[in-house]
Amino acid sequence: MNQKSYIFAALAALFCLSAAAQPQPSTPPASEAGGQSQPSGQQTGQPMTPAMQLATWYQRAAEAYASDDHQAWVTALENLHRMRPFNYDFMRQLVMGYALTGKTPEAFNMMLRMQQQGLAADWDQVEEVESLRRYPLYPHLRDLMKSAAAPAGQASEVFAIDADYPMPEALAFDAGTGRIFVGTVRDGLILVRGEDDDELTVFADPDGTPGLRAVFDLLVDETRGHLWVATGTTGHYRNARSSDFGRTALIKLDLATGEKLGEYRVLPDGQQHMLGAMALAADGTVYAADGSAPLIYRLQPGDERPQPFLGTPVFTGLRGLALSEDESKLYVADYDLGLFFFNIDENRQGFALGIPETLNLGGIDGLYQWDGHLVIVQNGVTPQRVLRLKLDDSGTRVASLATMAKALPAFDNPTFGTVAGDDLLFLGASHWHQVGPNGQAVNPPLPDVPVLRSSIKDAKNVIVGEEMLEKLKRQGAPLMPNR
């Protein structure tokens, strides 16, 4: 597939995804406000919602690119970038669009921003940026961004999940016994592997555990001897029934035996719901993110069902959850918009996490708390990576970051994991992009999925924020092209 066909296909796919996405924000976050062209709802006379705006700009970008209207393509991309500032594809295509429309400074500024955020690209393979190659800044940024794709950090394989267990999605670690639990989407299995075991065995399955379906997260409560399961029905689940779509629950199992101790269903309301990432409080309260609606649920001890705890139409796709050490804040990862935190008090106010401009928070799946840090697994940027983010004393800003692992050969869309002492155990690959909507492999057989271990404690901090800009200046690299 040539470059143009690839970009057009990508834009078309993004448009289709946006049209079918879960509920979108009705009020844009701060990053979406200001300076954005607002297509209006001409038929209704009412302003378009952000979801409608996003779909409109996707469509305009695809149409403009297909017709070689580069200026209209750039305009659409600029609006998409304002709405999704962490999106790698929008940034990369803006460099190309600016180069094609003679906006050389804008092209280099976007390249510089991507480079500062640690993103990688091989610009020598992109013919649309030919006009940039005569400037002194081009080879400098080209080499830096090409080298950013090189593997860094460390992660060792603990074991591999073979194709007999398709679509593994969840990991949990029992520190008391050293057991590792694995949950799968395709078969709704919960597997277990002991410290001295050589293979996985079935801990719980839908036949023996009524209500158990596709598994999206697992959570160990060692204090009470429970294993929590976030489960529901998706088209990828082998035994999916249309009547079960949109239904989801938290299931409590005995941590030692796998016996079902309770099932806590989300009350049906006519909307799609799918509980995923969970976080556990010291008193046994479970928080769970809804992957199909912009909601976070809370199940307190004694509750009969999870209750909506907080939500905002800003969210576009909830992924990871993590509680602060003092449990005063709940950190939330949105795949498109990055990281937020909510104060766990009667007001439940939410804010975007403060970050330096040199940090891109797009494409986060896993989110975990460790000793005053957040650990994130990013598969929606290039290179794919696992980062440790040190928070400031207030817990509201990122003070520094460290790369635990990036662009490793084992990486093929790393997803979720679990903290095990001072390490992160995580799935180094995913089957989602290798199966169809019915969960069947597109090109069988499916590859193994490695469970990787990376040290959180030993990762080295890197320079962020203004210090990075000063370092680049001291290196003598021109920040702007010669005209």
Structure, described:
The chain contains seven helices and 26 strands. It is of the alpha+beta class. It has two domains: 3-151 and 469-474, no CATH class; 152-462, TolB, C-terminal domain (Neuraminidase, 6 Propeller), CATH 2.120.10.30. Strands 1, 19, 20, 21, 22 and 26 form a six-stranded antiparallel sheet that branches. Strand 11 and strand 12 form a beta hairpin. The longest helix has 17 residues, at 3-19. The two termini are 35 Å apart.
Characteristics of this structure?
about 475 residues; alpha+beta; Neuraminidase; 2 domains; 6-stranded antiparallel beta sheet; 4-stranded antiparallel beta sheet; 7 helices; about 30% strand; disordered N terminus; disordered C terminus
Number of strands: 26
CATH architecture tag of the largest domain: 6 Propeller
- Low-confidence runs of at least 5 consecutive residues: 1-6, 8-38, 40-44, 465-469, 475-483
CATH class of the largest domain: Mainly Beta
Mean pLDDT: 88
Question: Any idea of the CATH topology of the largest domain?
Answer: Neuraminidase
Structural class, from secondary structure content?
A: alpha+beta
Bin the helical content: 10-25%
Strand content: 25-35%
How many domains? The number is: 2
The CATH superfamily of the largest domain turns out to be TolB, C-terminal domain
Radius of gyration: 23 Å
Major pleated sheet = 6 strands, antiparallel
